[in-house]
Structure formats: structure tokens, C-alpha cells
């Protein structure tokens, strides 16, 4: 990982036939990898902008978005980017401006899904050259396009190209590959037409001509599959012949890829295939005289240097390698270290499920802009127990944050059970993660103690023995029993134990390989072992209760192994079957609706039933809280020992990363705070990446003291800060002030709500948003809620379309990691408002944002029952403000009944007698509110109506006191006042 590739660093100029040339600063381009990071209606998000700009900063010469649909009926993914309307232009302009600022060219790939676009996703009937369904995409039979409709689609490509130029893109790539519409017209599988569109090149050339006419001076290229894949599809020679008939004088480059939906193994290749797999096909395209880009297993600096130095291609299209780590660019250009892709294909398999994540990079695809792990206190010592993927990840992340980390494991080598996967036939690149982890341990000074048992039943003892300030437990899940008669036979063993006991089989050094084995279970481990042993000539019997082989694995992860097993005559597979008894050479299996059957089961019987997390009703937060209390230091639990998601590496790595962030945030707290911070205080949810700071400031007057010996799993309430000043506090400053005052989170205003507030802009792409994210990462402060939206029935919000307004607010909230958006109702038509609230709730799912309806004493919705009824109808939540509850006369019973819908309580105080009239209520709400505990509201009783872990946000803005004291001193006073209220006899609250 330290070699340099001088060929990759050479500039490349694109542009032919008098078109204005554009120069890439190097030969590295991002491939148009789909990621599902957009909105449901095709807009780009702050998360997506951050993702792409991060890779531009890393040094890419050209950054490409993704397959971007040119018309709504061509949308194939739930959150795919679109260029189908002019509304897309402003957001994409923000992206291209940011990419240009980093020195990269901006490229977009234009696409229409054709038969692969299913109506369940797009909302439109899918269309195609012929009524041939695509089973892989969903199997919907498309309607055959008329000739006139074909020309209309050509015009849609041209219109999208114009929008791309208006949005600032330098380069347009036409998607003519992977089984999408242009490719469908080429293929005999999907084109059975008899008219002029029967010619495989006809539609392609119409698109090329129309796009060139629409954007005469723009760099335009086309992506090409060098072969389609299926035996009855386009072979390599036929594809070259088709491209030979293309109007190549109007193109500036070709971008070579491979495959189609019917041969997905060629689109995203397995780790079994050699690096640079498409090199052999690229030479045939040199005859056309166009610059060539190429994809296909370009996963190391060495292979990139090879294909560029040999002239195989002129630039490389990188997808998985830079998804795993943008630092790969520096690895290629300057020999810098990087996190390697392991070709597991979890990324592409997630595309049909949601956001594209990464096994080795747990920060991407988590519905948020990644937040760095905060730096820990100097000399903080952390013990990590378990050196599997979760433990390795936690150890590295904490060491990177400045902790002194000791990693212990009772195994002989790091990697845990993952180390066995390195030697499986279908996962040969998995060793790259273990190798990288080992080098990172060495670089960061992680002390690794192998062959060392740590008794996690006595975490306090471990803390004393290792002098630890925090502990991460990542010891792996428990293995289920065999569960059948004869399971205690010496021929029966756990498949992982068997593999560990026979390393010579997997490394190929065995003189004799097993003649036969039986595997009980059909999970991914069973599949991999069966596939590997079968390749060595072993006869394999697989019996599993699963309906399919390796159901926890995605299609691409098993796209080669499963067909091999099913076709191998020495492999027998019984699915939806249970082993009831083993007599030493046979098993009795049961299947629904069929009489039990004895079948031959020669060889040893290996149990592969995955692993199970710890038993019991406790949540992760409760388990961590109890462990932390018993050990008197923060304790986090990670990986399959507690994670209830499928036991795959990707989930374990994410769990380890999240645990590290919880621990790191605990260790950033000030040293003068008494008591142990509980890692379990904070929900483990995707939009909250770090646990809270210590809540409690003993140096402050009236601060609560720690409460010892809380019952196991006792939740600790988190305290946030909303408004400080009547004229507003810029969000970056509010983050810093909240951290110094000892709060856990803030409520952020995306933009000023009242005309008197200071102007500021927290919208996506703004410098203020980036500064806010930096300060959040430095302090551990999180953003829980964004505000404020008032729907009045006009359909407008500050003069703009209200839906556009809330989408932009949600986009900013997603970037900040918020989970709620506060909304109020001034619309006299509650049915209309309910419809808007339901639409907002539906839109929020794309951002991880839930609307919270706030009943306000002087607005249309001004009671708890009203708010509950509308929230139930829309599927959203409600937020309770102490001022308004007291003004509209909410009862404790109403609050208790609504408690399950309330994610946050807003705290302030005031006189028991309300001001006269609506104007008086408005003035009171928007002017100085009473400090908690200084007024006449029964705040402890109100708080007692809710669960003890419902967060509280102090919303007590002031003008006069801020002017005298300053914002920080005012925040500290509010913190002390809130602590006083929260520790009354009615409601006991712990700050530990």
C-alpha cells in the first residue's frame, strides 16, 4: 500500500472536434456508483454533497454523481438522483460549485431504467423496447414503447443534458451499459422490435445526436458494457461492432464497464476475479481513437499503474475502492496509507434496501454527514475485549481519538472468526482488512495481547487489572447448541471450531482432504465452507432450516457460490429442513408436510447456526448503563455479543465504530466531574453518533450531585439547550456554549424564525453548516431537533413553497444528525393541515426526520388531545412546551396518555396567571421566559408525567440578562436552574 503510480498523476485533457477542452488534474475518476443518498423526489442532499466533495478533496480528477434519471418513469431506486425537472438544478449547482472549489471536474451520468424501473419505485408504468420483464429488478412486464414514445425519450435525454450544463457539470456520461434503456435497445434479450428501433445502434445514436445538439460544447462520453453476460446476450465481439456504428465523432470518450442486470457479477465483480478484469477487452476499443476510461477490480495502486502505464486505458473509474476510503486516492498518487476494499459487495447489495453502506468504512451511508469521533482526554486508557471485526474497529477508532488502547483476545490471531473467512473461496480479499487492521494497530500503538482471556463477568475487576478508564466488550455472540438427538457425538462440532482445528485444509497444505462432510445450517458460513470444500473435491451435504442459502447475505455476495453449489453433483442441499437425529452416519430430517426421512450423512457433522446475542429483555442502553455503574467507568458493548442484526462483518464493524464513538464522547468530559459517565445513557440510533457529555457541573451553584447505586438499566435524562438570546445565537456558537455549560445537545434553528433574529444560514452547502459540524465533532454535542415550521394553509413558508421549505430543513437536519423537526399549526382547516403533516412525515422518512407537532396556546392546535389525534393520523410525534401546556390548561393525565408520542420536553417557567388575550400570549411566548424553578409552573409534576429518559430542552431566551451576563454565563445559569428542577423530591434525576 505504499507504492506510487506516476501514470495516475498525469493530467488528461478531454475534448474533440473543436469542443472546448476540459483537463482532469490526474487519471482518477469516480465511477457513477449509485448510493441512494438523494431524496425520494430526486434532489441531492447535504449528505451526498459531503460524500462527493470529500472525495474531491482527496484529489480525484473527476467526480461523477451516479446514474441520474432523465424522466420520472426511468427512476430505478427509491432515492436516486434526477435531472428530470428544472427543480433539480439549484441543488446540483451547489454540488458542482463545491467540486470545482476542490479542483475536480464535475460529471453526471444520464440514464433511464427502462424495463428495470419498477412502478413500485417510480410510480409510473415501466417502458421498454419490448415487453420483456427483468426478473432481477422485480419482474414487472414493461409496456412496449411506440416509435413516437422512443423519440420523446430521446428528447428527455437532451433536456436533461441542458439541465446538467445549467447545473454546472463539465462532463456528461450517457449510460449505455448495465441493462438500462440504451443497452436494452442494443440487446437481443430485451429488443424484439421489427421497426427501425430494431437496429441495436439506432436508439443509441438518436440519443448521442440529440444530446450533442443540446449541449454542443460540453464534454460527452458513453458508458459501455464490453459484454452483456448471459449466453443469449451481447458478446464481446458484438458489442465492439455496435460501438463501431455509433456516432463517435460526437463523443469525447468511452467509459468501459461490463454486465447487465441478468449478469450482475460482471457489473460489480467478485473478489474471486482477478484485478483489472476488463483489461483484456479494452484493447479492441483502441481502434476508435477515443480516450478510454475503465472500471473493473481496480482496487490497488499496483493494478492502476499497470493498466495506465500499458495504455490499456486513459483514466480509471473507481467505485468501491474510494467508497471504502477516499484516502485511496492518496494511496495511488503518493503512496499514502488507506483502508482497503475487500470486495464483499455489501455496498451493492444494500442498494435495494436503502443507503449504500460499506463493510470496512462504517461512517458512510448512515443517513447523515459523518461526524468524527471526538478526541479523548490525554492519557485515557481503554480496554477492548475481543479482537474480531467489532473489537478491531473500536480499538482503532479509540486509538485514533488519542486513547491508550489495550486489545485482548483469547485467540491466536486478530480477526476472530473473520480470520477464517479470509481463506474461503468466495472471499479471498478479506485478508486485506485484517492486514490493514494489524498495520493500524502498530501505527497507533495499540497493545495487542493474544491468547489472553478476560473475564467479562467481572468488568470492575478488568478495570482494576488493566487500569482502564473505559471498556469495550466485543467478545462475540454465543453459539447455539446442535439441537438434535446425537448432537453430543464426537463426530459433531461447531463449524468454526472445526476450521480452527484444521488450518491445513484451508491453506491447501493438507495431504488428504475430507472425503465428505455434513453441515447443519445454511447460513453464509455454511455456504462459504461448503463451496470451499466442494472445490477441494469433498462431498458435502447441507441441511438447513433456511428457505435459501445464506439468506443474510445479499445477491451479489453469493452470486458465484450458490450457482456452483447447486450445479455440483457432489453437493446435496436440503433447505427448509431440520435435523432431528444423527446416528453417526445418517441424519433424520423433518420438513413441513413431508414424513421424516433418513439420509446418508457421511463424514463429520459441522454445526453452522450463526451466533446469538446475549439473552434477556435489556436494551443495549440498559445493558451498558448497568455495566458502567458496576465498573464505575464507561462500558460499551459491541458486535454479535449484543447486536440483534444479522451476524455479518458489516454489522459488526458498524457496531464497533458506534461503540467507540460512545466511549470517546464519554472520555471527552471534563476531569472535574464526579461519577462515572454511562455509555448506555445514549440511544444507539443512526442519527446520533456519539454519546452525551457528562450532564452536571458541580462547580456551578445549585448543580445536582451524582446519585450512586442506581438500579440496573436506570435511564439518565439528557439535557439540551435551545434558544439563549431573543436575537438568536448562531448554531456553531450555540454548540460551543452548550458544551462549555455542560449540556448534552442543542435544538438548532436552520434559519431565523422571527424578524428580530440575527441573520444566519444553516442550509446545506453553507459555511455555517460545516462549521457547526466541526464544532459538534470537537465537543460531542449533538443536534436533536431543528425548528421551526409554521403551516398556515397558504402553501407558502416565508414566500417559498412550504414543501420545498420543509425538504430543505430536513436536508439540513439530516446533515446535523437531528431526528425531529418541530412544526406548529396556524391553518384553520385541520383536515388540510393533517394532510400536510402526513406528507411531511412521509418525506421525513428519507432523511431520518420525524415531524413533532407542538400545540401552542394561541394557534389552531392548542391542546394535547388535538395534537395527539393529528399525530396519530399523520404518523408523527408531538413536543410539549411547559409554557403552552400551562397556558392552554393541559392536564397531567393528558400528558401521561401522550407520553409515548413525546420525544422531547421544552422547559421554561412563568407566572400561573396568563397574560390577557391572544396578543398577550404571543408576546409572552416570544419575549423573555421564566428561568426553570423561578416561576409558578409545577415543572416537577409535569416532568413526572413522562418516562425518566425523555430528553429535556431548556427554552428560556432572554434579552436583558444576556446583555448583562453574556451568553455563556446565562447558559450556565440555565443549566444550574434546570438541574435544580430535575432533582426535586417529585422527580429524582441523576447526572452520572
From TrEMBL:
<comment type="similarity">
    <text>In the N-terminal section; belongs to the NADH:flavin oxidoreductase/NADH oxidase family.</text>
</comment>
<keyword id="KW-0479">Metal-binding</keyword>
<feature type="region of interest" description="Disordered">
    <location>
        <begin position="1"/>
        <end position="22"/>
    </location>
</feature>
<dbReference type="GO" id="GO:0051536">
    <property type="term" value="F:iron-sulfur cluster binding"/>
</dbReference>
<dbReference type="GO" id="GO:0046872">
    <property type="term" value="F:metal ion binding"/>
</dbReference>
<keyword id="KW-0288">FMN</keyword>
<dbReference type="Pfam" id="PF01261">
    <property type="entry name" value="AP_endonuc_2"/>
</dbReference>
<dbReference type="InterPro" id="IPR023753">
    <property type="entry name" value="FAD/NAD-binding_dom"/>
</dbReference>
<keyword id="KW-0285">Flavoprotein</keyword>
<dbReference type="InterPro" id="IPR001155">
    <property type="entry name" value="OxRdtase_FMN_N"/>
</dbReference>
<dbReference type="InterPro" id="IPR036188">
    <property type="entry name" value="FAD/NAD-bd_sf"/>
</dbReference>
<feature type="domain" description="FAD/NAD(P)-binding">
    <location>
        <begin position="381"/>
        <end position="587"/>
    </location>
</feature>
<keyword id="KW-0408">Iron</keyword>
<dbReference type="InterPro" id="IPR013022">
    <property type="entry name" value="Xyl_isomerase-like_TIM-brl"/>
</dbReference>
<dbReference type="Pfam" id="PF07992">
    <property type="entry name" value="Pyr_redox_2"/>
</dbReference>
<keyword id="KW-0119">Carbohydrate metabolism</keyword>
<dbReference type="InterPro" id="IPR051793">
    <property type="entry name" value="NADH:flavin_oxidoreductase"/>
</dbReference>
<dbReference type="InterPro" id="IPR036237">
    <property type="entry name" value="Xyl_isomerase-like_sf"/>
</dbReference>
<feature type="domain" description="NADH:flavin oxidoreductase/NADH oxidase N-terminal">
    <location>
        <begin position="21"/>
        <end position="329"/>
    </location>
</feature>
<keyword id="KW-0411">Iron-sulfur</keyword>
<protein>
    <submittedName>
        <fullName>FAD-dependent oxidoreductase</fullName>
    </submittedName>
</protein>
<dbReference type="Pfam" id="PF00724">
    <property type="entry name" value="Oxidored_FMN"/>
</dbReference>
<dbReference type="GO" id="GO:0010181">
    <property type="term" value="F:FMN binding"/>
</dbReference>
<keyword id="KW-0560">Oxidoreductase</keyword>
<dbReference type="GO" id="GO:0016491">
    <property type="term" value="F:oxidoreductase activity"/>
</dbReference>
<feature type="domain" description="Xylose isomerase-like TIM barrel">
    <location>
        <begin position="737"/>
        <end position="971"/>
    </location>
</feature>
<dbReference type="InterPro" id="IPR013785">
    <property type="entry name" value="Aldolase_TIM"/>
</dbReference>
Amino acid at each position: 500500500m505504499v507504492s506510487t503510480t506516476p501514470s495516475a498523476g498525469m493530467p488528461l485533457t478531454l475534448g474533440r472536434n473543436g469542443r472546448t477542452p476540459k483537463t482532469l488534474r490526474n487519471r482518477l475518476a469516480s465511477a457513477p456508483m449509485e448510493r441512494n443518498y438523494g431524496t425520494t423526489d430526486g434532489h441531492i442532499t447535504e449528505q451526498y454533497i459531503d460524500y462527493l466533495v470529500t472525495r474531491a478533496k482527496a484529489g480525484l480528477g473527476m467526480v461523477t454523481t451516479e446514474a441520474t434519471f432523465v424522466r420520472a418513469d426511468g427512476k430505478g431506486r427509491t432515492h436516486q438522483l434526477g435531472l428530470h425537472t428544472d427543480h433539480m438544478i439549484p441543488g446540483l449547482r451547489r454540488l458542482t460549485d463545491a467540486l470545482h472549489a476542490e479542483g475536480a471536474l464535475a460529471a453526471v451520468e444520464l440514464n433511464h431504467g427502462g424495463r428495470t424501473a419498477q412502478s413500485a419505485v417510480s410510480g409510473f408504468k415501466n417502458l421498454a423496447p419490448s415487453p420483456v420483464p427483468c426478473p432481477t429488478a422485480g419482474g414487472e412486464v414493461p409496456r412496449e414503447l411506440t416509435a413516437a414514445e422512443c423519440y420523446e425519450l430521446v428528447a428527455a435525454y437532451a433536456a436533461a443534458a441542458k439541465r446538467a450544463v445549467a447545473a454546472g457539470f463539465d462532463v456528461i456520461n450517457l449510460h449505455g451499459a448495465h441493462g438500462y434503456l440504451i443497452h436494452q435497445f442494443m440487446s437481443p434479450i430485451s429488443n424484439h422490435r421489427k421497426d427501425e428501433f430494431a437496429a441495436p445502434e439506432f436508439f443509441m445514436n438518436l440519443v448521442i445526436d440529440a444530446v450533442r445538439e443540446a449541449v454542443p460544447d460540453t464534454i460527452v462520453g458513453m458508458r459501455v458494457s464490453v459484454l452483456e453476460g448471459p449466453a443469449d446476450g451481447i458478446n464481446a465481439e458484438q458489442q465492439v461492432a455496435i460501438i463501431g456504428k455509433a456516432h463517435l465523432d460526437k463523443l469525447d470518450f468511452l467509459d468501459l464497464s461490463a454486465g447487465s442486470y441478468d449478469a450482475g457479477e460482471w457489473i460489480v465483480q467478485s473478489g474471486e476475479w482477478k484485478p483489472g478484469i476488463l483489461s483484456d477487452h479494452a484493447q479492441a476499443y483502441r481502434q476508435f481513437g477515443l480516450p478510454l476510461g475503465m472500471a473493473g477490480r481496480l482496487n490497488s495502486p499496483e493494478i492502476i499503474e499497470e493498466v495506465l502505464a500499458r495504455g490499456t486505458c486513459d483514466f480509471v473509474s473507481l467505485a468501491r475502492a474510494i467508497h471504502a476510503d477516499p484516502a485511496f486516492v492518496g494511496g495511488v498518487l503518493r503512496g499514502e496509507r488507506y483502508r482497503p476494499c475487500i470486495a464483499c459487495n455489501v455496498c451493492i447489495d444494500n442498494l435495494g434496501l436503502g443507503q449504500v453502506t460499506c463493510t470496512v468504512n462504517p461512517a458512510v451511508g448512515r443517513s447523515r454527514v459523518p461526524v468524527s469521533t471526538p478526541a479523548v482526554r490525554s492519557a485515557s486508557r481503554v480496554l477492548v475485549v475481543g479482537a474480531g471485526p467489532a473489537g478491531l474497529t473500536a480499538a482503532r477508532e479509540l486509538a485514533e481519538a488519542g486513547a491508550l488502547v489495550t486489545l485482548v483476545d483469547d485467540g491466536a490471531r486478530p480477526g476472530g472468526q473473520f480470520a477464517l473467512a479470509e481463506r474461503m473461496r468466495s472471499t479471498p480479499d478479506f485478508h486485506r482488512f485484517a492486514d490493514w487492521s494489524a498495520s493500524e494497530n502498530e501505527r497507533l500503538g495499540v497493545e495487542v495481547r493474544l491468547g489472553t482471556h478476560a473475564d467479562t463477568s467481572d468488568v470492575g475487576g478488568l478495570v482494576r487489572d488493566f487500569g482502564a478508564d473505559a471498556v469495550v466488550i466485543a467478545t462475540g455472540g454465543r453459539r447455539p447448541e446442535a439441537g438434535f438427538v446425537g448432537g453430543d457425538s464426537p463426530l459433531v462440532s461447531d463449524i468454526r471450531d472445526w476450521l480452527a482445528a484444521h488450518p491445513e485444509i484451508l491453506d491447501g497444505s493438507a495431504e488428504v482432504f475430507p472425503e465428505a462432510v455434513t453441515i447443519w445450517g445454511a447460513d453464509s458460513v455454511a455456504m462459504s465452507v461448503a463451496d470451499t470444500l466442494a472445490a477441494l473435491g469433498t462431498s458435502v451435504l447441507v441441511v438447513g432450516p433456511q428457505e435459501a442459502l445464506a439468506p443474510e447475505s445479499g445477491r451479489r455476495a453469493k452470486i458465484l457460490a450458490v450457482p456452483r453449489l447447486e450445479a455440483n453433483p457432489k453437493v446435496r442441499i436440503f433447505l427448509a429442513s431440520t435435523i432431528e437425529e444423527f446416528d453417526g452416519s445418517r441424519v433424520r430430517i423433518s420438513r413441513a408436510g413431508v414424513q421424516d426421512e433418513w439420509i446418508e450423512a457421511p463424514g463429520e457433522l459441522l454445526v453452522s447456526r450463526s451466533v446469538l446475542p446475549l439473552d434477556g429483555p435489556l436494551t443495549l442502553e440498559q445493558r451498558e448503563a448497568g455495566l458502567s455503574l458496576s465498573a464505575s467507568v464507561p462500558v460499551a458493548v459491541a458486535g454479535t455479543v449484543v447486536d440483534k442484526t444479522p451476524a455479518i462483518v458489516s454489522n459488526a464493524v458498524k457496531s464497533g465504530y458506534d461503540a467507540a464513538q460512545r466511549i470517546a464522547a464519554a472520555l471527552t468530559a471534563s476531569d472535574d466531574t464526579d461519577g462515572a459517565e454511562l455509555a448506555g445513557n445514549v440511544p444507539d440510533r443512526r442519527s446520533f453518533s456519539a454519546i452525551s457529555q457528562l450532564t452536571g457541573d458541580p462547580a456551578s451553584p445549585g448543580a445536582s450531585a451524582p446519585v450512586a447505586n442506581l438500579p440496573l438499566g436506570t435511564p439518565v435524562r439528557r439535557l439540551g439547550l435551545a434558544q439563549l438570546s431573543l436575537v438568536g445565537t448562531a448554531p456553531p456558537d450555540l454548540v460551543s456554549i452548550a458544551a462549555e455549560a455542560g449540556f448534552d445537545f442543542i435544538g438548532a434553528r436552520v434559519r431565523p424564525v422571527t424578524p428580530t433574529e440575527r441573520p444566519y444560514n444553516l442550509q446545506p452547502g453553507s459555511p455555517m453548516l460545516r462549521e457547526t459540524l466541526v464544532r459538534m465533532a470537537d465537543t460531542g454535542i449533538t443536534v436533536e431537533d431543528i425548528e421551526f415550521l409554521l403551516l398556515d394553509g397558504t402553501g407558502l413558508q416565508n414566500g417559498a413553497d412550504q414543501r420545498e421549505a420543509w425538504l430543505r430543513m430536513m436536508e439540513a437536519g439530516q446533515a446535523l444528525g437531528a431526528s425531529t423537526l418541530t412544526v406548529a399549526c396556524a391553518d384553520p382547516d385541520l383536515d388540510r393541515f393533517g394532510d400536510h403533516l402526513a406528507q411531511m412525515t412521509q418525506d421525513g422518512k428519507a432523511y431520518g426526520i420525524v415531524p413533532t407537532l407542538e400545540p401552542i396556546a394561541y394557534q389552531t392546535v392548542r391542546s394535547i388531545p388535538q395534537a395527539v389525534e393529528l399525530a396519530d393520523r399523520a404518523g408523527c410525534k408531538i413536543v410539549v412546551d411547559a409554557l403552552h401546556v400551562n397556558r392552554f390548561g393541559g392536564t397531567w393525565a393528558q400528558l401521561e396518555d401522550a407520553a409515548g408520542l413525546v420525544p422531547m420536553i421544552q422547559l421554561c417557567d412563568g407566572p400561573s396567571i396568563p397574560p390577557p388575550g391572544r396578543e398577550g400570549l404571543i408576546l409572552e411566548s416570544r419575549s423573555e421566559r421564566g428561568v426553570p424553578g423561578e416561576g409558578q409552573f409545577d415543572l416537577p409534576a409535569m416532568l413526572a408525567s413522562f418516562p425518566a429518559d425523555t430528553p429535556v430542552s431548556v427554552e428560556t431566551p432572554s434579552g436583558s440578562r444576556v446583555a448583562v451576563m453574556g451568553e455563556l454565563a446565562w447558559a450556565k445559569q440555565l443549566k444550574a436552574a434546570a438541574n435544580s428542577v430535575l432533582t426535586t423530591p417529585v422527580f429524582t434525576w441523576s447526572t452520572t
